[in-house]
Amino acid sequence: MDTWMLVTIIAVGAVAVVIKRLMGEPLNARDLFAPPLVLTGLGIWALTEVKGLTGTDIGWVIAGSVLGVGLGAVRGATIQVYPKEGILYQRYTGKTFLVIIGSLLIMAAFGFLAVHMGMQAEARPINLSIGVGFLGEALVVGARGLSTGVPFAPEKPRRFERPRI
């Protein structure tokens, strides 16, 4: 798949998630953790496809991933987690968007530094960066949700799944 096509698909998906969370949505464990894990897995797979991956590249990827999880965790701390209709909901706040902008600037500066310090630009898969950021967010939001004692929202039925009775 063309790189720009993949970036576009991932960006559209990320914008859709942000819009849903801005409006407020039920907090479902599968929806909270599945996308970041899938994106992170795809990012790791993309790294295996990089020709001539070096120890320097791997070091920068690990450092960038740790930074991404940390920034995602900070973002997760700004998300409103609240009970509604007997289940948990989540909503992005104004602070969340400030953290998103700050995170983008920090990660851009980190990427610039990494490439200028010897990292291959190809060793920076965008899906890995987005995935680890959402993973950090999910870990904090999930922990905050568990601490409330309010149940997570039930899973939505899948398209081709029979309704549970």
Automatic annotation (TrEMBL):
Residue stretches spanning the membrane: 6-23, 32-48, 60-77, 97-118
Assigned keywords, A-Z: Membrane, Transmembrane, Transmembrane helix
UniProt protein name: DUF1453 family protein
Species the sequence originates in: Streptomyces alboniger
